[in-house]
Amino acid sequence: MASSSLSLFFLFSLLSPILIASSPVQDPELVVQEVHRSINESRRNLGYLSCGSGNPIDDCWRCDANWEKNRQSLADCAIGFGKNAIGGKNGKIYVVTDSSDDDVVNPKPGTLRYAVIQDEPLWIIFARDMVIKLKEELIMNSFKTIDGRGASVHIAGGPCITIQYVTNIIIHGLNIHDCKQGGNTNVRDSPSHYGFRTISDGDGVSIFGGSHIWVDHCSLSNCHDGLIDAIHGSTAITISNNYMTHHDKVMLLGHSDSYTQDKNMQVTIAFNHFGEGLVQRMPRCRHGYFHVVNNDYTHWEMYAIGGSADPTINSQGNRFLAPNDRSSKEVRPHLLTFFFLFFIFFFEFLKPISKFSLH
Ligand SMILES: *[C@@H]1O[C@H](CO)[C@@H](O)[C@H](O)[C@H]1NC(C)=O
């Protein structure tokens, strides 16, 4: 057992640089069309399937009365840029039985932390309802699914989930809220390694240099920094069917205008409900390509969707129910865009016009 997990570890260390350096898809519009095709198909089946909802992700697994026996078929249900995230598919089922998180360097078998740091693919489920108050960030290893279906699982009151330099992660059906900062201590991130963590942002889900990530059907609220932030060269991400409430800076996709590697960032934001008590960043985008489709915006205080640094934001089929406040109803480019356009106006003969689209 020890030697087989050791050799697995070497296999993954050889593979991981290749897997992490995920290149963007050449033509993002093809992925957009594929999303529309699957939405259309789901709608066409509405008349025939009694369980059909018109939501292609849900209809993919909820129509299976035996879903609990076939949990891993969820991995085939994603749409959009994160569609190929396989999570822990083809790995063992790991059942979390212990909600504690007492030792973050040597986590106890049965805990969520023990499960997520393993090198082998794992499909992680929960033995019963539980509230997990993490002592430090939950640092995930590649090829994991955290599947909360069938139990009411809260990750709350402490630091939350970190997806850093890893790939193929599915997070489904968790309640993630009241996340706090952690850090200034050692935390284990694989069976063979632990390291010192500086103070964390306090996000619900923090994606840092991660790829092939799918966050589906989670409720997220009231965290210290973002609910879901994806930065530092992260790409191939789908964020779908989530219910987000009571939070200021909801979703940051790209952390700085000068970090041009985020040009490769491709994210699908689909079928989410942005609800009461939200203020801004649903999402706030930089550099990459963002397909924001079929979301329901029922509350925002400052703005819903925004961006800077020449992002392409393809917003389709969203419903915006503006608050009764004039400034929240405007559709306008970001202030920086005005400076950008101003710049082009005066220097158009010196500099070719860059592409900017905010559909
Ligand atoms: C989806 O259906 C709409 C409305 O019928 C249609 O305009 C669109 O072309 C379809 N898209 C795809 C990719 O099938």
Automatic annotation (TrEMBL):
<keyword id="KW-0106">Calcium</keyword>
<dbReference type="InterPro" id="IPR011050">
    <property type="entry name" value="Pectin_lyase_fold/virulence"/>
</dbReference>
<feature type="domain" description="Pectate lyase">
    <location>
        <begin position="129"/>
        <end position="326"/>
    </location>
</feature>
<dbReference type="InterPro" id="IPR002022">
    <property type="entry name" value="Pec_lyase"/>
</dbReference>
<dbReference type="Pfam" id="PF00544">
    <property type="entry name" value="Pectate_lyase_4"/>
</dbReference>
<keyword id="KW-1133">Transmembrane helix</keyword>
<dbReference type="GO" id="GO:0046872">
    <property type="term" value="F:metal ion binding"/>
</dbReference>
<comment type="similarity">
    <text>Belongs to the polysaccharide lyase 1 family.</text>
</comment>
<feature type="signal peptide">
    <location>
        <begin position="1"/>
        <end position="21"/>
    </location>
</feature>
<protein>
    <recommendedName>
        <fullName>Pectate lyase</fullName>
        <ecNumber>4.2.2.2</ecNumber>
    </recommendedName>
</protein>
<dbReference type="InterPro" id="IPR045032">
    <property type="entry name" value="PEL"/>
</dbReference>
<dbReference type="InterPro" id="IPR012334">
    <property type="entry name" value="Pectin_lyas_fold"/>
</dbReference>
<comment type="pathway">
    <text>Glycan metabolism; pectin degradation; 2-dehydro-3-deoxy-D-gluconate from pectin: step 2/5.</text>
</comment>
<dbReference type="InterPro" id="IPR018082">
    <property type="entry name" value="AmbAllergen"/>
</dbReference>
<keyword id="KW-0472">Membrane</keyword>
<feature type="transmembrane region" description="Helical">
    <location>
        <begin position="331"/>
        <end position="350"/>
    </location>
</feature>
<keyword id="KW-0812">Transmembrane</keyword>
<dbReference type="GO" id="GO:0030570">
    <property type="term" value="F:pectate lyase activity"/>
</dbReference>
<keyword id="KW-0732">Signal</keyword>
<keyword id="KW-0456">Lyase</keyword>
<keyword id="KW-0479">Metal-binding</keyword>
